[in-house]
Amino acid sequence: MIAQSPASGNHTPVLLNAVVSSLVTSKTGIYVDGTFGKGGHTQALANALDEGATLVGIDQDASLLETFDQSGIAQSLHLVHANFENLDQALRAMGIQQVNGILYDLGLNSATLEDAERGFSFDRNGPLDMRFDQSQPLTAARVLNDYSEKALGKILFEYGEEKAARKMARAIVLRRESTSFKTTADLRAIVAELTPYKYLVKALSRVFQAIRIEVNHEFEALKTGLEKAVDLLVPGGRLAVISYHSLEDRIVKRYFQSQSLQPAPPEIQPYQNTVPGRIDIITRKPVVPDEEEVAQNPRARSAKLRVVERRS
């Protein structure tokens, strides 16, 4: 049976039981939800911890933090408007130097997706925004209207794995010469012009994903956030990351592999090339949702959980 989180409302946190069982190593420790969202994972962690524990919730979307009901959490809870790439600054501002566990759930909040005014969804017409953090200046409209054809093609190919990236980039540039991009319908129209109907939904998903990743510099933030998370863990502390597509999972997997082994000192290199690094990999294969969870929450279908532990 999948555990339910009272704080989540209609939102169902992904891999809830696996996250809590993997992450909690000290019931009185300090735990950080670096992608707080609607607080479902944080509430589940609170249910597993003693009252003396400390919880920190970090999110780029200030509106999610402002609407969270803290009444169900007995522990000390700190909510911080920030990107997890600035995790160290956020924690040290509170006087926290090290923590026992950190979670990054890289999925989009369903309420954010469904809000047409945020511009994330290709099936809801709205402004081309796509910002998680509404205080930052770069929007999807600026990317589409200001980036060069070469830059657009690179983004669509590298972040969306779109085979027709160059063709779409050219079409975007030609279109904006007469009419600027303002709405999600404008972008959808370009993709529809260049894609057979039976492949349209997948193409739209790839293109919107690519632009969103660029707007929020997601991959750069993820790489920085992973490094800072490992730095901040106490010996025996754990970092859990849930990814939803191959590009971000590859970043997580490769970083964990790079930190689990390091070059051997010169004196033992004749005998072995590597020695244990800063972390131990707890999940040799990623944890994925079972059939019951996918049936209850179809958005969980592509989720992969990877967990590592800081060595002493």
Explain what you see.
The protein is of the alpha/beta class and 312 residues long. The chain has two domains: 198 residues, Vaccinia Virus protein VP39 (Rossmann fold, 3-Layer(aba) Sandwich); 82 residues, DNA polymerase, domain 1 (Orthogonal Bundle), CATH 1.10.150. The protein is 41% helix and 16% strand. It has 13 helices and nine strands. The N terminus is likely disordered.
How are the secondary structure elements laid out?
Layout: H1 16-23, E1 30-33, H2 40-48, E2 54-59, H3 62-66, E3 76-81, H4 87-92, E4 99-105, H5 110-114, H6 140-146, H7 149-160, H8 165-176, H9 184-194, H10 200-215, H11 218-232, E5 233-243, H12 246-260, E6 261-263, E7 274-276, E8 279-281, H13 291-296, E9 304-310
Parallel strand pairs: 1-2, 1-4, 2-3, 4-5
Antiparallel strand pairs: 5-9, 6-7, 8-9
Helix pairs in contact: 1-2, 7-8, 7-10, 8-9, 11-12
